[in-house]
Amino acid sequence: MTSVVIKDLKGNKVGERSLRDDIFAIEPNTHLIHSALTRQLANARSGSANSKTRAEVRGGGRKPWKQKGTGRARAGSIRSPLWAGGGVIFGPKPRDFSISMPRKARQQALRSALAARSEQLSVVKNFDALLKGSEQPKTKDFALLLKELGLSDKWVLLVLDHKQEGALQVERAARNIPALRVVDYTNLNIKDLAQSEAVLLNEHVLEQIENRFKPCDGSKSECKEEKAAKKAAPKAEAKTAAKAKVEAEKPAKAAAPKKAAAPKKAEDAEPKAAKTRKKKSDEE
């Protein structure tokens, strides 16, 4: 059973907590970590580099000089790739560098990265002592905290839950420290874990990270249904809210009584044969 020491902001031990073995005690899969890191770095590329070919460079429509008789090399355009200011041969064009990777493989790679950093975890009870008082905590206060925890000379990854009260104030106090990076636990990634020498987080965030990889207790079909329901819930709520908004904005239309049918004219009421006889008599 893997465990971690819980400290206060002064570096004193206040408790101990066991870690989930299926996350922090597994053998790190270096191949998966490398593949996930390669994917993350490739997907971060914009792929917007662009150069012009000789067909796209402005000018060059006229032949610079005649083909023969000048003693110079023959030339057909001043925008040839051989000329200064000409087009580029096989230059970069906008492209997509993204790499796909199965979701389960990405999750396993993150588990492996967390297992590789299990010895470098620094867990505090909370950051309440830093937030006491009405003033915003200063960067020097957080630098002192790192010194008390023995992390002042290391590259530190600070993992927070931005939904937790006071997390924004902690981030503002910490983000100006050069050797420290702040991320939300939902954005925890391979690159930041690989570049850090220590991971600082509180007990609440550690619990949230473990719940993120919590397996479903039911059958496989029940787990799939549960995940699908969780995924569809925000869309259904947004659709319902949009529909309610449209209904509220729609003006209420009073139900108007139907108009009575106009009575038929006497002429229309006459039978067709009578109309024909009348017409003939008029002609005579």
Task: Describe the overall structure.
This protein has a domain at 3-46 and 101-212: Ribosomal Protein L4, Chain: A (3-Layer(aba) Sandwich), CATH 3.40.1370.10. Helix content is 41%, strand content 11%. The protein is built from eleven helices and six strands. The protein has helices at residues 21-24, 30-43, 103-116, 128-131, 139-149, 167-174, 190-195, 203-212, 220-249, 266-269, 272-283; strands spanning 3-7, 13-18, 121-124, 156-160, 180-184, 198-202. It has a six-stranded mixed β-sheet with strand order 2-1-3-6-4-5. The radius of gyration is 37 Å and the shape is flat. The model has no long low-confidence stretch (mean pLDDT 85).
Question: Main attributes?
Answer:
284 residues; alpha/beta; Ribosomal Protein L4, Chain: A; six-stranded mixed beta sheet; 41% helix
